[in-house]
Specification:
With 232 residues, this protein is an alpha+beta fold. It has a single domain, classed as Glutamine Phosphoribosylpyrophosphate, subunit 1, domain 1 (4-Layer Sandwich), CATH 3.60.20.10. The protein is 33% helix and 32% strand. The relative contact order is 0.18.
């Protein structure tokens, strides 16, 4: 299984329209955080089934150049000889895209719902994708930080059945969020990975909670030196 969620959450500040873009992903193989999630101040994309750094990086580059996410993915897949085995989905400031190639292994599918997309392959059933999407929808634009809500959505998918490959016991998970209004340095609880674990989503949640605590402690300890940086 590879299960992922890409999200766009717009909001307004005194400086105008801002966005939170986020990706969360888990799979029953090690190291998914290094090859699947791609996020920038222009959008969020996940590339899975047959992952590709090139495809993810080029999609973000096209978004930075002003191309819409659906046009960017269409153009890149048209030049990709392995497109039947790709599953790619994501969001930009205005739109979304989701593609599941004909070679992706069942159950494989996606959801495209305005400000978020979800996709998975090698899922135990369609319920996995439905539970993931439902979890995010019920908390969208909520008070909790986006990274936390994305991890909760992955956990809902795992609880609904997760991966059908019972013989594989080691998996991984990752979450990445970029906030266009966030000052530098970025809050480090927004970019976390668990590269090899038998309970990757649960461990990602534990890592997130520890990172959030560490962020709050460092903000309190060093606010006078680096200035106060408020979380989401």
């Amino acid at each position: 299984m590879t299960l992922s969620l890409c999200v766009r959450e717009p909001y307004r500040t005194d400086d105008g329209r801002q966005f939170r873009f986020g990706v969360a992903v888990t799979t029953r193989l090690p190291g998914v955080g290094a090859i699947c999630p791609f996020v920038s101040e222009h959008g969020a994309v996940a590339v899975q089934s047959h992952a590709s750094d090139w495809l993810g990086d080029r999609t973000l580059a096209y978004l930075a150049d002003g191309l819409a996410v659906d046009d960017a993915v269409d153009a890149l897949l048209a030049a990709d000889d392995n497109r039947r085995n790709r599953q790619i989905h994501g969001v930009d400031a205005d739109g979304s895209v989701a593609v599941t190639g004909s070679g992706c292994v069942e159950f494989a599918g996606h959801r495209e719902a305005g400000q978020f997309t979800a996709a998975g392959n090698l899922l135990a059933s369609e319920d996995v994708l439905a539970a993931t999407a439902r979890s995010y929808e019920t908390t969208a634009f909520g008070d909790l930080p986006l990274a936390e809500r994305l991890i909760d959505a992955l956990a809902a998918g795992v609880e609904a059945g997760g991966d059908r490959r019972d013989s594989l016991t080691v998996g991984s998970a990752a979450v990445r969020v970029v906030d266009t209004a966030e000052p530098t340095p970025r809050t480090f609880y927004n970019d976390l990975r668990v590269d090899a674990s038998e309970t990757p989503v649960a461990d990602l949640r534990t890592t997130y909670e520890a990172a959030l605590l560490g962020y709050e402690q460092s903000r309190e300890a060093y606010a006078d030196e680096v200035g106060d940086v408020s979380p989401e």
